[in-house]
């Protein structure tokens, strides 16, 4: 570009002008300048479809993963794995694939009833 065109596009700013050295961050200044009487627009509700996973509490599948089993018995996940290993009465998990074990919900409910019967 030639010098005449550059000065038209980018005019020089005098160091003494208020634009040369802003006193605040531009973001802070813009929020102070916003009109206080204007209400913020309400956020729109999400139009996403509901998840189709068994993690939804309103859907009960016949199978439970280890976290759901732990929540069912109010114990930790390692406790479930220990029970599965050491307790012969605890329902056996079904390994669907490597790293994916599920327990049948009815077996766990039956085991829970049996435990309550022993406690009485």
Note down, in words, how this protein is organized:
The protein is mainly alpha-helical. Helix content is about 40%, strand content about 10%. The protein is built from 5 helices and 3 strands. The protein has helices at about 5-10, 25-35, 65-75, 75-85, 105-120, and strands at about 65, 95, 100-105. A 3-stranded antiparallel beta sheet has the order 1-3-2. A hairpin with a 2-residue loop joins strand 2 (about 95) and strand 3. Helix 3 crosses helix 4 (about 75-85). The protein is elongated and about 90 Å long. The N and C termini lie far apart (about 95 Å). The mean pLDDT is about 75.
Identify the strand order in the major beta sheet. Answer: 1-3-2
Proportion of residues in β-strands? 5-15%
Q: Percentage of helical residues?
A: 40-55%
| Element-by-element helix/strand order | HHEHHEEH
Q: What's the number of extended β-strand segments? A: 3
In round numbers, the mean pLDDT is: 77
Poorly predicted regions: none
Total of DSSP H or I helical runs spanning 4+ residues: 5
Question: Largest beta sheet, briefly?
Answer: 3 strands, antiparallel
Distance between the first and last residues' Cα:
93 Å
Q: What class would the helix/strand composition place it in? A: mainly alpha
Brief rundown of the structure:
The chain is mainly α. The chain has helices at residues 3-9, 26-33, 66-73, 77-86, 105-119; strands at residues 63-64, 94-97, 100-104.
